[in-house]
Structures are given as C-alpha cells and as structure tokens.
Isoleucine--tRNA ligase, mitochondrial
Amino acid sequence: MGFSSRLVQQLRVRRRRIPGVGAKYSTAPNKSYSNTLLLPKTSFPLWAEPSKREEPYRRRACEELYRWQWENAKGELFVLHDGPPYANGALHMGHALNKILKDITNRFHVSQGRRVHYIPGWDCHGLPIENKALQELGKESSTASANEIRSAARSTAQREVQSQKQQFQELGIMADWSETSTYRTLDHDYEMRQLRIFQKMVANGLIYRHYRPVHYSPSSRSALAEAELVYKDDHVSHSVFVAFEVDSKSESANPGMRDVFTSTLNPRLLVWTTTPWTLTANMAIAVNPELSYVVVKSLAGGSNSGAFVVVRDRLDALRDMLGLVEVVLEIPGSELVGVAYRPIFSPLSGRDDHLEIIAASHVTADSGTGLVHCAPAHGNEDYYALQKLGMISDMESIICHVGDAGCFTEKVSEVVGQDAGQTLVGQDVLSGGSKSVVELLKKTGSLIKIQRIKHRYPYDWKTDKPIIVTATSQWFANLEQIKDKALSALEDVSFYPSVSRNRLVSFVGSRSEWCISRQRVWGVPILALHHIPTDRAVLTSRTLDHILPLLDAKGIAHWWDGPIEDFVPEFLREEGEVVSEVWRKSTDTMDVWFDSGSSWSMLEDTVKQYGPQRKHLADVCLEGSDQHRGWFQSQLLTAVASESSEENAKTPQSPYKDLITHGMVLDQNGKKMSKSLGNIISPMTVIHGGKDKKKEPAYGTDVLRLWAATAEYWKDIAIGPTVLAQTFESLRKIRNTARFILGNTANGGELKRVAVSKEDMSLADRYIMHELYSLERTALESYTSYNFPKVVNALTHFTNITLSSLYFDITKDCLYVNTPSSSERRAVVTVLEQVLSTTIHIYAPILPHLAEEVYEHAKNDTSLSSVFQRKWTPLGDEWKDTQAAEEMRSLMHVRSNVLSLLELARTKKQIKSSLEAEVDIILPDDLGFPVEFSRLLRRQESFLKTLFIVSGVRVTDTKTLGDISPQWLHMDSFQGPSQLDSDARLMIRVRPATLEKCPRCWTYTRQSSNDLCKRCTTAVQ
C-alpha cells in the first residue's frame, strides 16, 4: 500500500469529535479594536483628474529638469539628435509616439547621471508649408508674387511651430522650450550652416547641373528625390500594345536581317508600354541580345492580324492578345540590334525618319513583349542605355515634349504634325494627353490593343498625386564618389531593430546621384549665377566665397530681393557689361532633405566642448522607418560629402552612433488613419478627452506615454478605445501599488526608519528583494537596448503578480496588526520602502508625472525637487538570492495545492475566509522523498501560515500526526517540486481552525478564555 493510501486510512481511523472546534461565531467580547490597528494612511489619491495629477508636476519634470541636469549633471555627454517634424499642422499620433520614445530615452540617461543634450527642431521649408500659406492667402501660386508667398510661408511656419511646441510640452517632453534652445530650418544661423556645407560639397566637386530625366511632380511643379515618393499598388494605367514598322530600305538597317523584314510576312515590332504619352518621345527600341526572339504569324483576324516580332519566352503570356499564332522564324536578340524602324507618328508628321533597335541589358522577358520602347527623356534606364551608346550627349539631343505643368508643349507638333499636335498641346499627359495619344495611335494603324492594368506607381508624398519622369535641368549631388565611404561609415552604427540596417544600406548603395534642386519659392536658395547669353550656370566655391559673407550680413532674403550686381564677383564680369543684362540669379531652392540633413552640424560645437573624445556627434537618432530613405540618409550623405580632403583620408564617420526606427500608428483594426475613414485619434484627445467624455475619456499624458512604451514600436502599432482602456488599467495598478506602499510606510513613527538587515528578513522578504533586484537588472538592460516594452512587461508582472497577488496579500496581517517595533513589521517596511525607491526609478522615464507625484508624497530629502535629481543607484549584488528564489518557488508549489483545497471548502460553504482553516502538511516516510525539501518545510513552518493566509500550519509526519476528528476535512497528495524521479507524495490536509477568532486580527488564534490572541494582547498593551 502506498504512502498516501495508508495515510488516508489512518486519518479515517483516528478521526474523532473535538468539542468546540469549527465554531461559527466567536465568543469573544464584541469590542472594536480598529483604532489599535496600523491601517494604511496616505494623502496620495487613488485617482484624480489628469489636470490635477499631472499639470502641477509638468514644469518641474520637464523644462526645469532639463536646465537643472544640463547645469548639474557630472556624467558623460549623451546626445539625442531630434529629427525635425514638419511645421504644418496639429500633432498626430505618429508625432506623439516619436517624441515620447525619445523622451523615455533621454530621461533614462538623466537618471543615470549623464548630461543629456536634446534640442527640439522643426522643418520649416518646402511645399506643404507653401501650399498651406497659399490656401490662407486664398491665391494660386501663379497669382501671388514670390515675396508674398515667402512672407506668408514664414508666418505660417512660425505659427505652427508655436502650436506644436505647446502640444509637445503636453506630452511631458523634457527640453528647454525657449526659442533660443530649439532650432528651425528657417533660422538664419541654421541656413548659413547649411549653405557652408553645400559650399564644401561644391569644393569637393560633387555638385553639378544636368539635363536628364528626374522624378517630377506636376502637382508640385517641382522635381522630387526618391525619398519624396510613395508607391501605391492600386494605380490604374491604360497600357497599350503598339506595332512599329521595320524600315528595311534604310541604309542603316542590319543587312543580315533585311531578307526577314522584306518577306511577304512584313513582320512588325510589337512593343508594350504603360505610358502611351511617352511614345511621342521615342528614340529607340531596345532588345536584350542574350534573349531569343521569334517571328510569329497571327492566325486571328482584325487589328491583330499579320506577323510580329516578340521574345520567345513571352509567347504564352501574349496568347490572350494575339490568339493562335504560328512561329515562323527564331532570331537571336543580337541579330535584331541595328535593325531600322519607322517612328509611329511619321505618317502624321509627313516625315520619313527612321530609328534603330539597340541592345540593352535592362530588357527582360518578365513582362511586355521583350522589345522596349525607349524615351530617354522619360526613363532613367532608357537615358543611360542611349547615353552609353553615344546617342545623347546634351540637352538638344533628347526629345522631350512635356512642360513644367506636366502638359504637352508646342514641340510635340514637330513629331506628330501640326494638325495632330493641336489635339495634344496643353493636355495633361497623365489624363487627357494620354487618351489623345491613344486616339492618334488608332489613326496610324499601330495600335494593337489597349489594356487597363492596376500596378505599383510613384506618387508625390506631399500632394498625394501621381508623378511623371521627365527631363529637366536640375542640380545634382554626385553620390557615386561618396557612397562607398557612406556605407563604410555605417559599419560601426548600431541599428534597432537590427534588420533595419539592410534597409538603409540598400537605399544608400542603390543611389548614384541626388537631385537637390526644387522649383519652389519657399526654401533655401541654390546660389547659382546664370549667364544669360549662353544659359551657362556658374556655381563654384569661389563664387560662394563672394556670396555667403554678403548673405550672412544681410540675410538669406537678400538673395531674392537684392540686385544681381551684389552677387556677381569681379572675376566673372566683362569690362563694360551691364550686369543685369548678362547675369541672373537662380530661382531654384534646395531639397528639404538637404535642409534637415544638415542638422548634424549644430552638434559640432557642443561635442567639442563637452565630449571631445567622442567618435560620433549624436548617440541616438530615433525616427519612423520611412526615414531610411529620408533624414537618416541625408544626414549621412551631407556629413560624408562635406568632409575636407584631410578628413577624407581618415576613416569616414557617421554623424550618429545608434539608429532606432519605429513603425506607423494604425487604428484599432490595423488600418491606416485617415480623415476619409474617420478613424483618426488625436493625442490631445487622448490626454484631454473628447466632447463626449464617456466615449472619449480624458486619460492624461501618462496613459499615452505608457501606451507608447508598451507597444513593440519597431513594428506598426495600433491604438484605439480598447487599447487605451487596457493601458489605463495597467497604469491604475502601478499607481495602486505605490499607494499601498505609501499608506503602509507612513505609519509607525520613526521606528520604521530603522532598516532591517537581510539576515533578519523572512524568506518572503528576501525573495521579494531578489525579484526586485532581477526586475531592476532587466529594466537597466532593456532601457540600454531601447526595449521599453520589456521594461513595462517586467514591471507590470512584478507589481500585479509578485507584489499585489502575493507579497501585499500575505503581509497585510503583519503590517496592520503587529506593533511598529516588531522586527517582522520593520522588515516588511524596509522591503516596501526599497520597492518604492527602486520601482519609481524604473517607471519614471515612462511615467514622469506619476513618478513625481509619488516622490512628492514619499520624499524625505526636500533639497531635491525632482525624482530625476536623485541618481538611480542600483541594488547591490548582495540582494541576488537564488536560494531564496528557489525555496520560495518550492513553497509556492505547495501553496497552489493548499489554495485549491481551501477553495473547495469555500465552495462547500464550510468556510468564508481562509483564516477559518488550518493546514497539516504530512511528510511521507518514503526514503526517496528529498531531504532538503522536508527540511525547508520544517524550517519555514511558522512562515507557512502567512504564505497560505490561514490560522495555523503544522508540518508533521505519520508518526506524530495525532488523532483529530474535525467537522470537515479535505485532503490531497501531490509530488513535491524537483522530485520527478520519486513516487513519494506529500499529503496536505485542510481542516477547521482549532482556536477561536480574535476580534482584532481576525485570525483563529485566541484561547476561548481570553479577549484577544497573544499577539494582539501584547500589541494593545
């Protein structure tokens, strides 16, 4: 018979009635002893309006704290460089996420005693602000003067900066918000630094002007950089299949192919394009010499009849269009090179021109027909292919019929003829112009099929309108010369998350040049001089040496308003010339990414003074993932490109050490927020509440900050009513934890200040200190690696599970009932005070308002006004107690089984409170049962009743079990922890308490002849 079976039999035999046991009501005098208990007392409110609990601490925890730490911190310099948001409207949730993550990082480093450098900035130039200014003026750009637009744009930007600044402060962002301690890209000093960086790039031979295809936004009337594009997958185009006739009579035709194209089949070249409007600028057809092409005869009638040349690998894909075909001949792609063909619009123009098929490696068999229409004015691959062959060399050799407005110009008539040209001139190439070209294709008989397709297409990220690729004269920065150095500089940069390195490296590595000029009036000017007679642009370091001092003295606006005579140096003037008739100033402005990308230069003086040995200017840059192709790139490129020849000889350095990226903020259903969907959530609404406070409560700033810290920000993250309600509940639990500790450490007079040593602490006390030590180590490590969700998860588990569900529960009896001088109570208070001190440092970077409020109620040192002024000093390694943790885990295993039996008794209405019960833990006789576990149970016997929250626990064995016969009894057996290889089981018996209820402490530990239990009698005396 096994141990458990024998024991159950013995218990049944020995059971006999004990008079008085399990009495339902106490016979003790009905006297109130509540005034003798040390019940929690604190002025710390359970909850309050956000304005009452946060605003009183904001200035102290934000602006005053930033100034204090800058003047008093003795640690090393920490620089978080702020990527400037656009000054063009109220903050959205992405702004809030970004600024809060930065602030958490900064506050952590302040708590470590470091001197934090953080200067908030704003991006103030560019199209969005210019458009907003025009809307407020009620004018179009064509009807307002440049100076009027610039003046209005400046006022708009300055107003929006002030509005955003106030909103950022409501997010609890620690910074010096005075005007002199922030930066704006429209500030004179900032613009001059930017222009000096530009001059260094000019001196390094990296800036040039060129006429070539660029991304161009008709809606913005400006060229765009790749970083200013967004790609939409649902753009609809009307693609066309067109046929070009081969000109076999041309002297330039490939002689070897002449017989093929003079046969009775008379095959045509089949081409597919998604941009029919570019066909007027066709300059070649490209094939891949490595592919195999075929002449196919269509067996269908109609427009598709006849013979066509296509790539063999596309035959199946083209079957729906061509129908049944017969392959007549196979031709290597190399044999097609040099074959002459007639432009589609020759019949309309009355001209008898011919063009040639060229070889190009960018032609593939993945789409289309394997023959690619080349318009170098409207495609970079086309441009480079023809440039490599020497077919284009200057502006005059490129055919382009598109103007600044994205419409056909008069030049198109040269190709399609005057009559046809009149139907095209002035039409938008993306809409009416494209349709008109299709109609002309029908007239020429070259149109084979129109096909509506949905595909990926670039849009202007500011106007949300489709762009085109077209040739214009623009200023470029040569990246081919510096990108290897830029990539080398990234090698010692740490990326969070680490996979984001690939994204930035890919963007930098794929670029060969940067179009830096924009055709806008609101921006930093490109200081080029144009020689009117020759249309030659002059921009050299020498001309800038003349211009920059002048602008530094008179302001950047002098470039726009001042006379041309001021800017043309003597060495450019011819004797006797009238300068204003010979020279003009450039009207182009710089790409706004060049504006913000120059911001690293602001850090140089600070780093020289406070961290001269530093390798990088900024420790951290933290922005959205879209900045891999924006600000992260432009900073890196301008920094590397502006290095002097001496600096170039050294190992290139990135301006930043760590790059952190976060995702986009989505609504609760994972959808992008937009006005049209009506799912936008404003950060100010979360803080202050909406019109209907029941639907949109005023949660306050700390709830918003806790949401930002809890989310895995490196992914796209969601926010909505459910998420906010859950976050509010998490904050409430953290707050209640602090309130419990404040209430129980405020009683007991000065005795509580006598801390108890570790040796005098109970197992539970030592276990909590070990868990607190582990929590703090996790928090420090996670803050250092910017893993804020890990901090929050560890903290909430500690407060909700370790403290609230365990330690607070089992220590209330001691805290309320014991005398202030008892060593047991003083040990608990010692632990609670350390828990409060440590956890306040852990959550202070995330919840600064709560931390300041708790600190206000708990602090003894009035010389430090802010919790952040008290350096976070971690617990010593002596509190790492793996033995206490292991022993506690073993006892918690027993506790879970005890609680199950207590719940069974409660379900059967045998008890209301667990204090009405006692527990017997009966050790087995089995030699296989772990000796150490048995010793642990006996050693902690007096603690077990506290752990189980019962009135008594007896650790015994079958020999000393004794005879009892209670009114009810519940038993169970289980394997003890870490005895997986043993069959021996531990028996637990839950039964009614044998003594009476004490009216003061409510435990069943009072002799019936006494008014109080022994402990309470001593306490009351």
About this structure: The chain has 36 helices and 32 strands. The longest strand covers residues 229-245. The mean pLDDT is 88. The radius of gyration is 40 Å.
